[in-house]
Write a structure and sequence with these properties.
The protein has a 6-stranded parallel beta sheet. It has a 5-stranded parallel beta sheet with strand order 7-6-8-9-12, with helices on both faces. The protein is 33% helix and 20% strand. The radius of gyration is 18 Å and the shape is globular. It has 8 helices and 15 strands. The longest helix has 12 residues, at 75-86. Strand 4 (41-46), helix 2 (53-62) and strand 5 form a beta-alpha-beta unit. The protein has 2 domains: 4-47 and 184-258, Rossmann fold, CATH 3.40.50.1000; 77-181, 3-Layer(aba) Sandwich (Rossmann fold).
Amino acid sequence: MRENEHIECWLTDMDGVLVHENQAIPGAADLIDRWVATSKRFLVLTNNSIYTPRDLAARLRASGLEVPEENLWTSALATAQFLKEQLPGGRAYVIGEAGLTTALHEAGFVLTDQNPDYVVLGETRTYSFEAITKAIRLVEGGARFIATNPDVTGPSKEGPLPATGAVAALITAATRRVPYIVGKPNPMMFRSAMNQIDAHSETTAMIGDRMDTDIIAGMEAGLHTVLVLSGITQRADIDAYPFRPAQIMDSVADLIDQV
């Protein structure tokens, strides 16, 4: 097991690790402050593609966390970077919010429903029958199908909301085309994040609260993995998986003195 003092760069999930129901988890603010004060390279990762880094930074600030915009990495940014590498200056029909459309626009993509190279599906609170129908017809017509993340539901105060994975399943059922998914648990999400901060897998750690996304993707990307029990996964759940994280901690508060 690599000692934490040898870790040069940190990737961390957001929900369940740093915040819970729009409130900072105890120790999260101190950890972020420690990283900033020591000029540690780090990124806060989220599969949510709705918000731009500026919007996300403002939301985190309201929760009590000061995270600079440049330290936020979303599935929308990862998707835009992936598509820019695949087809610079390409065309995309997008179902999503400002986080995704802005990222693709800044990556040089033309957003259009006329002969797009890609149909790109992200998170939105305004899925429409018309937009989904358009996506189905474009995918059937040859557009390549991309989704920002596989999450089938998202949280709300009223209960679960259908999310990207659920709508992707609908399009797949209609077209028999399975999307390429960029976000977690695809290790590409982590590799794109590491490229962003010039990190190397041998000296990078991933902190997460989910065994089935954060930890497995971190392992597959060759990272030191830290599972915190402040979110989805409880200690009793760990034995259900055939793999284990390098470290298990109650919360990020336990990490402060080790970074």
